[in-house]
Amino acid sequence: MSGAPLPWQQGFWQQWQAYRRQPSHAYLLMGEQGMGVDELAQAMARSLLCPAGGCGQCAACHQFAAGTHADFYQQTVPEGKRDIPVEAIRTLNEWVVETAHAADGHKVVWLHPVEALNEASANALLKTLEEPPPRTTFILQGAHVGQVLPTIRSRCQHLHAPRPSQAAALAWLQEQLPDYGADQLQRALMLQFGAPLAVVAWLNQGGWQRYEHWRQQMNALAQGRQDLVQVASDWAGWMDVTEPLRLLLAWSAQQLRQSPQLRWHRLQQVIVEALAALAGSANKQLMLEQVLVEFVYGKQD
In 3-state terms, what secondary structure has residue 28? Predict the structure, then answer.
């Protein structure tokens, strides 16, 4: 039987072995993105479908790895949508009452992120959770338990995906990314809010080069050598316009830990408000300028 997907999940995985022998009908698995929660949810699903608990060698495991296991159903936000529509849950509800293909008759649903359920789709899922089909397990995964409908929360067993210590995350990153120095990886870990898998994805997609460009801009702004309107215009052209704001959010969090001044609290508040506005139809240039005005002209305590 295979072990935990990631080193810092070993304790959780040992606990899970007891759960999977007599699984609940629904688990609410909460964990921050970039910490390996997706990998953990998939490993949990595979262990329920494999007769040996996730051996990695049997037909069920091979089918799961290939994405063709007939008794596994994954539901996430459809492309082009902002939430999981009720039609998707109705289709899911029809699937769960069908006869399982495997001899043992177990079926698994992995739904993520659970916060993406709207009111109608949440209520449709609730009906199934209230009268769950036999030998069917739901793994509802999310990051913000407060955004999950209380009636859904009450019908699930709650599990929390472990967060790695900084030392554990750094050790794993050094194995995965040997071309980067320890100082670089430590800085990247800070910029990605301690999420090691997010670090790997970010660095593999040219994140360090963008960070160096961003850092030079911030230093020039702080020294009065660059115009904030020009910097905002540059950021507005980034593929992900929220990335420079998230870099600034991580940097300001570090400043706050080192020197708990109100200016860092104010800057973080402005960044969070801008990120929320940019998730809608806000003017990118205006939002970015507002953040940079706070960074450059925010009052000292």
Answer: strand
